[in-house]
């Protein structure tokens, strides 16, 4: 919805870290200045950064915790379309301590008064003057905002000088508008040239590059680290569409099958109309019209169901879907197109088939028209496809659920159960962390407590490391976690070599590190304990105290990276509290009470570590629920079709069954005759389904570095389940037919 959207690109960064290629959505601060100065293909460049905190009016009468806050430059309005209701776009963000807010935010803090020139404080420390009011974006975007804080505010006391100068600090998201006629590849080459020419030499060592992402593809196609917020999943959307199409296909197959099976009912109608002079084209139009009309009635019912289910689906998907979006004109046009496509395609074969009947043959009393070779083969083929789709969905449900169970129950190398995380996300709160840590140690329900810079599952910041006193000097970026002495114990980690941090050794703080097994392997170290490293280009000399068993600090989609643990209290942002089993609520109430007594201006918030891990697999959970639900729906639709076909087959085979019973056939043999064809079709469907479903499931599982294996029992269970449901569906009709008195069936002969 931005006027320059076809020319707007986000500049990302790729580098080789610890032997692995990593991609990050943010880039360093100084890159934007170089682009404007040295690349003529660039029309505009702007940087944004993210922050959050407590915002209050001057009298503190209204205060709220805000998370949709961005640092932005005046050029933000040159790149993105923003409608100003008050203020001037060219000056609103020029200079420090200025903020532009949305209309809804203005009403939230100032009611109906004009907010222009009034002040807002952030975290009860920094004060900003409102210099503009804008309309919030009405359409979805990969980032939104309630506040735009002037970027120059960060240059005062917000961040250290290195945040703006060091190329390893990635905290700004850089967007550029290419001049008309300049392609992304040309622009990317120019950005790399400028970065290598004016940036530090180390960029070449780490094979740093700056890929460009089109603005319109970020939400669904970008899954790199450091996103402003969680993007949508193109894979999930594709699976959703594919499953929806498969369900629709099964319904179409049923319609074609039942139409051809019941064609003998309409044979005389066709014969009479042809004798009365109605040509075939009009008959085809009639049958297609009936199909489209039936589809339209179904569509009206579908719209009613979707409208009623929309709030539940919004909660399930995590998207704020509205009735306005559901009934938008563009979506309704797509829906109308699908409606006509389904109606015409599903009705085309029955229409051409029914209109082809010869009136003389029909009126002579031939009632087996619907059982012609062509119709029979078509029905069997469609039943096979229906079985194959159902089996594929059932097997996919089993495999996805199995992978999700594997992810939840695998050994992570650390304990995620019974761990409460308390976040300290700004400087004022971090100053209170040591005091709260000491007080929380006295809470009866807290078994162990530790402070850390990061909590899993997330990507880590990396530091330069080079091992001293080795023949081959090498320099590597190694992910780092700033911890305290109790981190290993609190997280239930295992020391496999050497020792843990200890308060008995003063030099452990700032002079000792723990490394994981992956780092030992990456550096090829034979005797890691006691090895000395130069950390951050001479900032620290540290010695390896011990080796920790490998642990998962990110999603199981990623390989375990080399990691080091380093005691550095100034970087602590979180408290990890291992709590005893029992009354969790009583423990949490004590923690909240201590917090409110110590820092009453700040709201106490917490979350459980195992819930954070579950959120990392939200897409898989949604996918599992989706496929399981639609598998059940596919089987249900298949059952409806099989019931109709079972009735038709029973009518066609009544005389055959009567003769078999007269000749001495048992009821079980008669039932098996009716089952045999169904079992044969299911077997063919199974053979078709296995390689296709294996191909797609193997492709889906390949995105996980740690995954379950596909096993034969998944297809065996899926096939047996589908067959069992199908046989049980037709069993009543089969039994009813088998129990018929042959005299009643054959008396007309």
Describe the protein's architecture and organization.
Strands 4-5-10-7-9-8 form a six-stranded mixed beta barrel. Strands 15-16-21-18-20-19 form a six-stranded mixed β-barrel. A hairpin with a 2-residue loop joins strand 2 and strand 3 (about 20-25). With about 750 residues, it is α+β, with helices and mostly antiparallel strands. The mean pLDDT is about 85.
What is this structure, in a nutshell?
With 749 residues, the chain is α+β, with helices and mostly antiparallel strands. The protein is 48% helix and 18% strand.
What keywords describe this structure?
749 residues, alpha+beta, six-stranded mixed barrel, 25 helices, 23 strands, 18% strand, globular
Q: Mind summarizing the main beta sheet? A: 6 strands, mixed, barrel
Number of strands: 23
Taken as a percent bin, the fraction of beta residues is 15-25%
Assign a percent range to the helix content: 40-55%
**Strand-pairing-aware structural class:** alpha+beta
Gross morphology: globular
- Computed over alpha carbons, the radius of gyration is 34 Å
Total DSSP helices: 25
Strand and helix map with partners:
Elements: E1 8-11, E2 13-17, E3 20-24, H1 31-38, E4 42-57, E5 63-72, H2 76-79, E6 84-87, E7 98-102, H3 103-110, E8 119-122, E9 126-134, E10 147-150, H4 162-165, E11 173-178, H5 184-198, H6 202-205, E12 212-214, H7 218-221, H8 234-261, H9 263-275, H10 280-317, H11 323-326, H12 329-354, H13 359-363, H14 373-409, E13 419-423, H15 427-430, H16 433-440, E14 446-452, E15 462-467, E16 476-483, H17 487-490, E17 495-498, H18 508-511, E18 512-516, H19 517-523, E19 532-535, E20 540-548, E21 564-567, E22 574-579, H20 584-598, E23 607-608, H21 609-616, H22 618-662, H23 667-701, H24 712-738, H25 742-746
Parallel strand pairs: 5-10, 7-9, 16-21, 18-20
Antiparallel strand pairs: 1-11, 1-12, 2-3, 4-5, 4-8, 4-11, 6-9, 7-10, 8-9, 13-22, 13-23, 14-22, 15-16, 15-19, 17-20, 18-21, 19-20
